[in-house]
Amino acid sequence: MPDPQSPAPRRTPLAAVHEALGAAMTDFAGWLMPLRYRSETAEHVAVRTAAGLFDLSHMGEVLVTGADAGAALDYALTGQASAIAPGRARYTMICAPDGGVIDDLIVYRLAAAEFLIVANAANTAAVVAELTERASGFAAAVADRTDGYALIAVQGPSAAAILGPLTADDLTGLRYYSSREATVAGRRALVARTGYTGEDGFEIFVAPRDAIPLWDALTEAGQGSGLRPAGLAARDSLRLEAGMPLYGNELSREVTPFDAGLGRVVRLDKPGDFVGRAALARRAAAGPSRVLTGLIGQTRRVPRHGYQVLWNGEPCGVVTSGAHSPTLGKPIAMAYLSPGAAESARAAQEAGQGRLAVDIRGSAEPAMLAPLPFYRRPD
Questions:
Q1: Are residues 18 and 96 in the same domain?
Q2: For residues 353 and 332, what is the distance between their CA atoms, to the nearest angstrom?
């Protein structure tokens, strides 16, 4: 039963469109979002083979501006925002002083003194608060602009062909992790070549009032290309196949970037101090306390978040994300294992001695280690 004391979930500018399409709606991070429309598997396959259309308007948008905006973000984040060229973007993290991940972010540099930061919906308030505190000693302003944006993504091998005719701006030269202001279907937009599916695609930021006209224009443009609206369930299985972390699963305040195999986002060599630097330097020197690995189930049963991983019948780790993979046709999962167990399991597997399993409701279901990501799109 819903808690009568809990506030009603927020509605994106496209909520009525999803309801009209018959989507199964769910409360996700305080937002009413489409979980699936008819078949999450069909939505997943559409993104891999043609294109999918996603409402991402629940994501947080934070604007950081001012003469010291780059320096403030260098201090606040693990990456070096001041080194991002205008029109480019970078994946990074904001960490606590002890090195734990507060959120993973994409930073878009819109101009010399203007940065747009996209945060996970559940963490937007925390990110705004942390950035505001950390920017206090700099000539920089932090503003939560989430209510000023709708965000729509078109993802898949046909994404460029669908979006291209809707704009006079040349998007062929827009590189991965780049953005450009453009007019799309007659609406001013920020178009970014980014995504969370492992496919080529675009994320389009527009004013909330332009969300429905843009969604309708993309839907019409994709009618002959196999475009499908896609919900959270397909987005999750797509990002899992692509080995992309999800905050609350692979990432949390108890996990450092090095634990998650994402030490590359920590720029210990950048000039000046940043929050969490000392703790992250110690973790980099000591090595991770856990190893994020891929697993492929050897039966039909799917490992789920929180299930124990077993080595020789003894617990050695925990599943962080799991689902049936439509692309591989098998259950897949990401899991944190102890470094010793991961090394032993890998050596045993190479010798043809698989003794790794996942405890699925009391049954030890065999599994094999697999490199991440499970899926890479064809070149």
A1: no
A2: 20
